[in-house]
Every structure is written in structure tokens, then in C-alpha cells.
Design a protein that fits this description.
single chain, 213 residues, alpha+beta, Jelly Rolls, 8-stranded antiparallel sheet, 5 helices, 11 strands, 31% strand
Length: 213
Amino acid sequence: MLIYDNIFSKDEIQRLIEFYKDQPTSNERRHANGKLQRVVKSTDYNIKDSVPYNIIHDKLEALIGPHTFSGGHYVDSHLPYELHVDTVKHFQSKEGVFVASDGQTGYGVLIPLIEGPEFKTLFFDHYIDDLQFGWKTLHHEDRSNTLPDNVMSMLTHQTPEELEEIKYLPLEGIADWKLGRVVTWPRNQLHCSSDFRKSGLTKQAVVVWVTTD
């Protein structure tokens, strides 16, 4: 996981917010209880001369080099993302997300469109092709260390069963959401949102997945 600050100006962030506000929804995902979980829209980053392409492409290329769009979305998230990876295999059965089946791992790119102390993404030093529930793929052999309480308090959206495995995972780092910031990571790296539900807020971001040349 790498963090780059002051990549986009406030004006560029506002232009992205205004652009996505007017775009049609491609998918709405709801929790099992029926509560709206997230609203997903196309990034349009794969369309040359689109607003997102013109704002993002050259700056992203300066950070990670020449790259090819492999998928992604604009997301308005009402509930926190649970632990997951962003591999092609993981997304094969997902709806509303375009992911090219190129078989490559590539990188994830996060561009927050909101900031605040409630919004964080936690990255673990653990890499897998897919997250099979039953959590067997999360079993970490070294169980001598556990995550500190302040980190566990960010993960209250995970079930007690899941937390019993997650607490032994080595934490690589925590990315606070800040405007102008770009966060990149290998698509097979485990990561999740902090639990921001008590804030009553929603969070917005552009997320793209790319392969580098």
C-alpha cells in the first residue's frame, strides 16, 4: 500500500463530485436487512477525454507509470466495506462492476471524494486470490500477536467469528481519507473500511483497478 498526498486540487475534486452527481446509477447494493449499502456508478475513466480521464490519467501515470484500465467504479457507500480483495477471481460473480478478465493481479487505486476522521481504509500484510467465507483463507499461522484495541474498534462491522481470525492478521497500515490523496495497493491485498456507521455519514470515492505496462 502506498499513499500519495496533494495530487488533486480542491477544484479538481469538486469537478469530479459534480460529474458523478449527474451520472446514472449502474447498481444499488442492499444489505440483507434491506438497508441501502452502496450506490455504484461507472467511473468513465476508460473513456478518453471524459472529465475523470482528463483529471486523473496524467497524474496517475506520473505516480505508477503507463497503465491499462481493468475496472472500477464511483461509489457512494452508506455502509462500510468488510474485509475483501479486488482480484478478478473475487469479482467474477459481482454485479454492477466492470472487471476485465485478463487474469492479471494489477493494482487498486482509491481517490477519496470526502475526508474526515471517520473514514479510513485498513490494509493487511496478507495476500490471497479470493476470500472464501468460512474464513479458512484468513488463518494466520503466527498467532503470537494480536491487533491493538484501537484498531479492533474500527472493525465492529465484522462478525465476532470473523474478528477471531482478523485479530491475528498483521496490519501493514491505515490510510486516512483526505481530499487530494491517492492510495494504491496490489489487488490481492486484504483490506477493509473502518466502521463509520455511528457518524451517520456516507462516503464517496473513485476506485479503479489497473494493470501496469
